[in-house]
Amino acid sequence: MTTGTKISTFLTGRHVGTDAFGNRYFTEKKAKPGQRSRRWVMYKGVAEPSKVPPLWNAWLHHTIDQLPSELQTPHYAWEREHVPNLSGTAGAYLPPGHIRKGADRAATAADYQAWTPGE
């Protein structure tokens, strides 16, 4: 995050909440007449959009107007904890047969023998 972003946030933004990952959410102090106030997030650590929880994402995109910290949402037993996008990292999913896993895979019905003329 640049110093300019921090200064701009300090001058024009109002802190409205923080999520479980330490990301801080802001809205404009003074919205222009007839326009919705701008909303943004300042990430803790690496700027990774997949670290934004679903309710905060809905708030950022004006899908909901009430702050997620004020909502009484049920937590279901089947819900998993949020995991950021691991693509491009050492923790990324690699299917069996992937070249980075040794490129060994089981034979399938789609395997074929190339046709050679005259055989």
In one word, what is the shape? elongated
**Number of beta-strand segments:** 3
Round the mean pLDDT to the nearest integer and report it. 86
Structural class: alpha+beta
Q: What's the arrangement of strands in the largest beta sheet?
A: 1-2-3
N-to-C span? 66 Å
Topology as H/E string? HEEEH
Helix fraction bin: 10-25%
Assembly level: single chain
Q: What does this entry look like structurally?
A:
This protein is of the alpha+beta class and 119 residues long. It has a domain at 1-71. Helix content is 14%, strand content 13%. It contains 2 helices and 3 strands; from the N terminus they run αβββα. It has helices spanning 3-12, 54-60; strands spanning 13-18, 24-28, 39-42. Strands 1-2-3 form a 3-stranded antiparallel beta sheet. The chain is elongated and about 80 Å long.
Question: What does the secondary structure layout of this molecule look like, with pairings?
Answer:
Elements: H1 3-12, E1 13-18, E2 24-28, E3 39-42, H2 54-60
Antiparallel strand pairs: 1-2, 2-3
